[in-house]
Structure formats: C-alpha cells, structure tokens
Amino acid sequence: MKISREVKAAVLVLSGLLLMYFLINYLSGENLFSSDDTYYTEFDYNALTKASPVTVKGNGVGKIKDIVYDFNTGKTRVSFTVDDQLKFSKQSKVRLYKTGLMGGNALAIVVSNDGEAAKPGDFLTSEVEVDLVSSLSTSFSGVSDNLDSTLSSADSLLINLNGLVLDESDNGIKNAIAELNATMKSFQSVAYSINSLVSKNDDKLASVLTNFDSITKDLSVITSNLKTVEFSEIVAKLDNTLASVNSVMSSVNNGEGSLGKLLKEDSLYNNLEAASKEMEELIRDIKLHPARYRRILSKKEIPYTPPQEEDQNN
Asked: How many CB atoms lie within 10 A of CB 286?
C-alpha cells in the first residue's frame, strides 16, 4: 500500500508536536509517565509562580498546578501535584519558604504520619517560614547603623584627643602629665615615710598584734562558754520565779496572809494609832513627873494618882 506524501507530512507534523509537548513538560519538571495526586492549600498573599517547586526535605516531589485568587475569602488558593509514592497524613502542613539569596520561593510538605492519611483533593494547612535572609539583613542593617554611629563618636574622640595633645598652653596635657608626675613623687615620699615608721615600730606593732591575738582567743573562749550555757533552762527558771512573785502579789492584793491583812484591813492601823497616842501620853507624863517613875524602882508599892496640876492647866 502506497502512502501519499500528504499523510506522511501529517504524521511527521503530529509526531513533532507530540515530541515538543513532551519536551516542554519535561523541561518544566512534569513527568507525563507518572501519576500525580493533586492537593490544595491557601495563603494570605501570593509569593509563588507555577514554576515554583514542591519539595520534601529539599527534594522535588511535585509542582505548582494552579494559583487562583479567592474573591470570597480574600486568600490565594494554590493547587499542587505530588508524586503518588509520597504518603502523608492530613496533619501534614504546607510551608512557604525562600529557596536562596536570589529570592526564589517554594512549597515544602512537612510530612506527618499522625492521624488519617491524606487523599487526593484534600485541603492542607499552610504556614510561612520566617525568612532567615531577611532577618539577617534587618539585623545587620541595625548593626551597621550602630557601628556607623560608634565610628563617628570614635572619630570625634580622636580629634579632641589630638587637639589636647597638640595644646601647648598652660592647660595642655603636658602640664597635666607634669603635675601627675609630681603627685606620684609625693606618694612615693609618703610611702617611704610609712615604711620607715613601720620599721621603727616593728616591735610595738608585733606586741599589738600579739595582744590582739590574745584578746581574740579570750573572746573565742567566752563565745564557746556562752554556747554551752543553757539559756532555755535559765529562761524557764526566771519564768517560774516571776510566776511565783505574781502569785504572792495577787495574794497580797486579795488580802490573804499577814502582809495582805496588814495592807487591806484598818484594824492594825487603828491599833497602832491608839498605841502611839498612849505612848505619847506616857512620855509626856514621864517628863512632867519623873519622881513618880523613880519610885517604881523602889520596893514599896506606891498607888497611882492622876496628875491634878496637868488637869488644872488644861
């Protein structure tokens, strides 16, 4: 059977188109001979392109299929394909991260095997990795600003120091160094004087230190003795003594006992007052009639007669 030129040309063109299609998909990272599963996620903003890879621990396992803006939620919905040989659960997360210093972005599947296994068409939770390069750039920019300020301050300080060194007036640094040298010489002279004084009074200082050591030992002995004193027993005895004194004072206050009756009852006071009056009358009678009391010492019994003169005078 003879094939016409037109058919041969058509077959050749179709073969070229199919070869070009396979070549384009191969260059874009899509393997047409493998079955991929499609999954979905979403982000607050879009930082991806369809050429962004889908990786697991840095290894390519898929590609971005479609990026669509959801007008209802205001988020970017991303669909991506993953090789069906990769198994993971619905607890796995899709992380947006930067691939390098040139600013490329990619999706990384943080695989988790906990829970129910993920199926094609499932929606996975997304997260955004903190950009290490941007953080370092921000940090270094702050350090750069601080370093620039520090260098400016150091430059001003060096300029001021240079002017101070070149100052040949009376207030210059040379005069200050000379005064400092004189001060050091004065300190050296004082040090020599102190050294001489110590050497001359070496025996006295040794005696003082010996006495101080003896006093320290005595204080140590006193402290050890105080440690052995049982203060608890002394306090207990003192407490008992105070309780006894309190009991005695309470009894006296209640009029119990001789001392209590003496303080509380008026009879003893009245008796003492009467006896005092009688003693006063006796002394006055002795002064007025001393002869009467001399007869008391005699053997004759002399009757007592009341003093009439005193009664008349009164």
From this structure: 11
pLDDT at 122: 92
**Per-residue pLDDT tens digits for 29-54:** 555 545 578 999 999 988 888 888 99
- Identify the CATH number of the domain defined by range 34-131: 2.40.30
- Whether the per-residue pLDDT at 75 is higher than 60: the answer is yes
Joined together, the tokens standing for residue 10 give 């058509």
